[in-house]
Amino acid sequence: MLISPLMGPILRAGFALGTFDFPLLKKSIKNLLIATLISLVVSFLYFLLSPFKDAQSELLARISPNIYDVLIAFFGGLVGVIAITRVNKGNPIPGVAIATALMPPLCTAGYGLAIGNISFFAGAIYLYIINCVFICLSTFAIVKYLRYPKVHYVDKLREKRIGQSITLLTIILIAPSLYFAYNLLQEKKFSDRIKQFVRHEFAEKG
User: Distance between CA 15 and CA 20 in Å, rounded?
Assistant: First the structure.
């Protein structure tokens, strides 16, 4: 996670989107796609060659993202970009990289491909996309709030379309995460009922 090459391009993409710097945006997306592809291929090859193919807890934790992962990505990215834009700069990238965990979902996606489990791959890629998009959106929000100057002039109609596209993308990504969060809650309730039943019928009755 600490040597991840992914955080820089994501933050740059958010900054480029906020300042309407479209050449930088294209370059950032290109760099992100290259880094993503390399990470995915390396992960796939590792799990393909590895004799250990059992799904451990670290892998299983990243195949069904929910709304909490969305919040972690957004606020993690928010902290990162606020620290970068301060006068007394620190280096928040390692901390944000750990909090939002960009590499583990890609490793899980590579594992899913290696064992031929498409649901593992899809869930992990969905988590990765959530992290990328919401870190980018948090950067975009701070850039707008701080009123960075626009690199290129954009007319009001195009600016409105960009805003609408961002809103639509946000809704599309959040909707499945809410469904997964609901399922997680139902599973927790079911598990609690089982424990209560076992305690009442066996432990309390001796």
Answer: 8
Q: How far, in Å, CA of 39 to CA of 4, rounded?
A: 9
Nearest-angstrom CA–CA distance, 115 and 125: 15
CA 140 and chain centroid, separation: 16
Q: How far apart are CA 128 and CA 27, in angstroms?
A: 20
Name the residue type at position 90. Answer: G
Q: Could you give phi then psi for residue 87, rounded to 5 degrees?
A: -65, -50
Q: What is the pLDDT of residue 53?
A: 80
pLDDT mean for each 10 residues of the chain (206 residues) = 74 89 92 92 92 80 84 84 73 61 86 90 90 90 88 79 88 87 88 90 77
Q: How far apart are CA 139 and CA 155, in angstroms?
A: 22
> Which residue's entry shows tokens 């929910």?
66
Q: Is the alpha carbon torsion for 95, 60, 177, 37 positive or negative? A: positive
User: What is the pLDDT, as a whole number, of residue 94?
Assistant: 59
Instruction: Compute the Cα dihedral for 120, 78, 152, 36 and give only its sign.
Output: negative
